[in-house]
Amino acid sequence: MRGQNPVFIPGPTNIPDSIRQAMAVQTIDHRGPAFAGMIGPLFDDLRRIFDSRDAAIVTFPASGTGGWEAAITNTLSPGDRVLATRHGMFSRRWIDLCRRHGLDVEVIDLPWGEGACPERIEAALAADRSQTIRAVLVTHNETATGVRSDVAAIRRAMDAAGHPALLMVDGVSSIASMEFRMDEWGVDLAVTGSQKGFMLATGMAIVAVSPRAKAAMAGAGLSRAYLDMREMIAATAQGGYPYTPPWQLFAGLRASVSLLLEEGMEAVFARHARIAEGVRAAVRAWGLPLCAARPELFSDSVSAIVVPQGFDSARLTDHAFATYDVSFGAGLGEVAGRVFRIGHLGAMTDVMALSGIATAEMAMADLGYPVTLGSGVAAAQAHFRATAAPIRAKAA
Description:
Elements: H1 17-23, H2 33-50, E1 56-60, H3 64-73, E2 81-86, H4 89-100, E3 104-109, H5 118-127, E4 133-139, E5 141-142, E6 147-148, H6 151-160, E7 166-170, E8 189-193, E9 205-209, H7 211-216, H8 229-237, H9 247-263, H10 265-286, E10 302-306, H11 313-324, E11 329-330, E12 339-343, H12 350-366, H13 375-395
Parallel strand pairs: 2-3, 2-4, 4-7, 7-8
Antiparallel strand pairs: 1-9, 5-6, 8-9, 10-12, 11-12
Helix pairs in contact: 1-9, 2-9, 5-6, 9-10, 10-12, 10-13, 11-12, 12-13
């Protein structure tokens, strides 16, 4: 039965049945009381997931890329300087998007496998004596390399430099999966999407906007119409939408947010960390390195695994799909052909993760990789068994 297996890509992620069923709703009048009565409480709950008390929540019918574009076009003007670290496919794409909008991007280049460097960001901001840099762009979780950057450390670096730039964070593959503290970390714009940790279909960009970022909109000169945050904030404050909303996605988002808050965000983070460590235990047993350069950079939502010299990771992911009907993430950009990725975020359990690990082992064995069949599964099982008792005790 093809199509019955879970996916192990870092997004779109597996959709729980309850969320799929929640989206199977009839059309409503989006200018009627049902939509108005849903959106206010939903946005209050979204603030809890971003861990912000007073951020404005903005949604657009778009993927996370639409959220990137909304973040810059609503707060910046043509020719504005921004500072960004480039260390993977998605940090690179955000930089490209900024340049297409006529922004002057100062880039800090780092090897793929590294995270954003607070020390270099602090040095660049300190050197900007006229304080013309308007924003710092950070990719919290670089999906292409399985690298998590330390957003809290970057905020400390910005404060140490005494620089007033806005802090914009791409949290598309981290928010609702890994620890994110918008207010505590001083994040001004946090961008995510419906198709990752929210376990929903692709199609909704979700942006949390700090009061400081909201104030910056008054002087922003970049063009926006469909992605105008001011119109969106004004409309949703009244229980409406400036144009036709994706009602079925909103219904699914309501179910998703309820599931996350019912589990508890600390428990969500702990579940992702536990499953990620199980995957990493398997990778160690295979004798393969991760793309992430150091343990403190390891992502809890995706692991990028470097294949041995002489092997092509694209052939491995193609073989796993063709033979076992299981999807893993292919290598992207500079690591294309060199890594394959196991996504372990969203609706993921230890039992599901074990099936992905076993399938990856079978595919590698089929292609002659120097791995021992069963070694990664056994290592992950040992980790999951050792860490299951606290979960059982809490449930009891």
